[in-house]
Amino acid sequence: MRDYLPPELRLMRLREMQEAAAARGGRCLATTYEHCNARLPFECAVHGKFEAQPRHISAGSWCDGCRRDARKPSVKRRLTEYVQKRGGELLSDYLNA
Q: Could you say which residues of the chain have pLDDT below 50?
C-alpha cells in the first residue's frame, strides 16, 4: 500500500483525533493513522464503539447515537407544535427518530 503521509504527520493527525475524541468525552482507539478516508475506531462515552473517517471527526461529527439524540428534542418540539395547532395533545414521549 502506498504511504499517503510521512510518519511525523501521521503521528500528528493521530494526536488530533485523540484530542477531538477527548473533547467529546470519548476516546480514539486507533494506534495508527493512514489517511483521512481510512476509518478509525472510536469510543463514545454514551453509545460505545463506532468507526468514522478522520475527516468527519475533524469537521465536527461524532457518533450516530449522539447525532440522533441531538435531533430528538427538535423533532419532539416540532411534533408538539404540529399537534397543538390542530387542537390535540401529544400523549407520549416516545420518539423513534
A: 1
As a residue count, the chain comes to 97
Q: What is the pTM of this model?
A: 0.71
What is the grid cell recorded at 68? 440522533
* Number of Cβ within a 10 Å radius of residue 39: 13
CB 53 within 8 A of CB 37: yes
* Per-residue pLDDT reduced to its tens digit, 38-55: 999 999 999 999 999 999
Cell of 5: 503521509
Amino acid of residue 70 = A
Per the structure block, which three cell numbers stand in for 37? 478516508
* Residue 40 CB contacts under 8 Å (≥ 6 apart), including other chains: 17, 28, 29, 30, 33, 51, 52, 53, 54, 57
